[in-house]
Amino acid sequence: MLTLDDATALCSAARDAATAMGVPMSFAVMDPAGHLVSLVRMDGAPWISADVAQGKAWTSAAYGMPSAGQKAKMEPMPNFAGALTAMTHGRFTPQTGAVPVYRDGQLLGALGGSGGTGDQDEAACTTAVTGAGFTTEA
Question: What Pfam families does UniProt report for this protein, alphabetically (predicted)?
């Protein structure tokens, strides 16, 4: 189970990683069912980044893989990607920037970021997950 303390630690570590990059971001932690556990928006992060971070985290948690994997999978199928987004009421966000959170091979949820490039968002999330003692793979 991903606790509130775990989610808070992930957001704090992600904020530290984004600060080191000099890029204000928002970060969202979802549990494996796609429920929001924690959300932070750094000073100066775009207002929309909070919603985008949640979508990326939801997508990563739903599939137990980085959201970049869904981006790659959906690129040749834009109509299907749009249909999935509509079916999930906008939650499915197949863009780079979120990674799953695993402990002892068990999917606990995902951490998503937004505010930088997709690669910057994913790097901050990966740094946070590993720095907080979790892994991004089963």
Answer: HbpS-like (PF03928)
Provide the domain count of the chain: 1
Contact between residue 1 and residue 21 where contact means Cβ atoms under 8 Å apart: no
Range of the domain at 97: 24-40+47-131
99: helix, strand or coil: strand
Does residue 7 contact residue 15 with C-beta atoms inside 8 Å?
Answer: no
In a domain, 11, yes or no: no
Sign of CA dihedral 127, 93, 31, 53: positive
CA distance 83 to 94: 12
Write the pLDDT tens digit of every residue in 107-135.
999 999 999 999 999 999 999 999 999 99
State the greatest distance between any 2 C-alpha atoms of the chain, in Å, as a whole number: 39
From CA 99, how far away is CA 55, in angstroms rounded?
12
Sequence-distant (6+) residues with CB within 8 A of 96 are: 66, 67, 68, 71, 118, 119, 121, 122
